[in-house]
Design goal:
Protein name: G-protein coupled receptors family 1 profile domain-containing protein
Structural class: mainly alpha
Domain G-protein coupled receptors family 1 profile: 54-299
Strand order of the largest sheet: 1-2
InterPro entries: GPCR_Rhodpsn, GPCR_Rhodpsn_7TM, TAAR
Transmembrane segments: 35-64, 84-105, 153-175, 202-220, 248-271, 283-302
Number of domains: 1
Largest sheet: 2 strands, antiparallel
GO molecular function, one term: trace-amine receptor activity
CATH superfamily: Rhodopsin 7-helix transmembrane proteins
CATH class: Mainly Alpha
CATH architecture: Up-down Bundle
Shape: globular
Distance between the termini: 68 Å
Number of strands: 2
Radius of gyration: 23 Å
């Protein structure tokens, strides 16, 4: 029976991840990686480097140029810091302690990895939600914008975003420690990991963002029609509507494409009759983390101020 269990365990490890091997029933990175493993980790390392460099450019630009010291850019700075830490901490930890390896070896480092992953990813989502609130007041209530969104309000939003994210990350650690005391799966831990966590981290912010951006889009269209009636400039209005639609579609589309598959998978995982293959879950996890790489392009590179700041920084470094 023991030999059969060992064979099944070894086969499970081989099937789950090409970069791991068995060493006295422990699950560790292989000393002789395959070509697939090398290509995989080179690609993931490249994602990490791009994530770090892109968000570092955003942080330097906002910190260096006084023109960017505004409430909106403070929120983008907080987002860039969260995404930078994803590239520096979560990407390397996820490469060293993958989802499939932690499935067999739930040690302290795996719990730390999960905590950082959930905390920083949640913080990134919360900051995106705060940016949508900022854009709502800027577009829908421009006369009240400076009153509603000032530095004190922005600091409060940032503190709440990081605070909620840290509490969720700590909650996952506590739930993981309780698992060791349970013979089976604890109901409260499953509820925390598969229902409460995803709801607070993803579904609730997504509902807020969808409602806000829908409102922004409707208001922008109404303003465009008003301009059309006043100025009779159909070409300019049509261009304005296309640009507004494209920006909102890009923001929501990239975010939802990256995060929705992973959270849907995690939410319905306990209710599936047949288990979802771990490589599928791990691939969806990396797709979600890649949003931290794309955020600088979406929220920074589309703005003229940032493009000019990046050019100045890069020219200064080259000279």
């Amino acid at each position: 029976m023991e030999s059969e269990a060992a064979v099944n365990f070894t086969q499970a490890v081989i099937d789950l991840h090409p970069c791991y091997e068995i060493d006295h029933f422990s699950y560790k990175l292989t000393s002789s990686p395959s070509v697939i493993c090398v290509i995989l980790y080179f690609f993931l390392a490249l994602l990490s480097v791009i994530t770090v460099c892109g968000n570092l450019l955003v942080i330097i630009s906002i910190a260096y140029f006084k023109q960017l010291h505004t409430p909106t850019h403070s929120l983008i700075l907080s987002l860039a810091v969260a995404d930078l830490l994803v590239g520096i901490v979560v990407f390397p930890l996820s490469m060293a302690f993958s989802l499939s390896s932690c499935l067999f070896y739930e040690g302290l480092l795996c719990k730390v990895r999960d905590s950082f992953d959930i905390t920083l990813s949640t913080c990134s989502i919360m900051n995106l939600c705060c940016i949508s609130v900022d854009r709502y007041f800027a577009v829908c209530q421009p006369l009240m914008y400076k009153t509603k969104i000032n530095q004190h309000v922005v600091v409060f939003m940032i503190v709440v975003s990081w605070g909620i994210s840290a509490l969720i990350g700590i909650g996952v650690i506590i739930a993981g420690l309780n698992n060791d005391k349970c013979k089976g799966s604890c109901f409260i831990d499953i509820l925390m990991a598969n229902t409460i966590g995803p709801t607070v981290s993803f579904y609730f912010p997504v509902i807020i963002m969808l409602c806000i951006y829908l409102k922004i889009f409707l208001v922008a269209q109404r303003q465009a029609r008003s301009i059309q009636m006043a100025a009779k400039c159909a070409a300019a209005v049509s261009k304005m509507e296309r640009k507004s639609t494209k920006t909102l579609a890009t923001v929501l589309g990239v975010f939802l494409c990256c995060w929705t598959p992973f959270f849907l998978c995690i939410t319905f995982l306990p209710f599936t009759s047949s288990p979802i293959p771990v490589p599928v879950i791990e691939t969806l996890n990396w797709l979600a983390l890649s949003n931290s790489m794309l955020n600088p392009f979406i929220y920074a590179f589309f703005y003229q101020w940032f493009r000019s700041a990046f050019k100045i920084i890069l020219i200064y470094q080259l000279c």
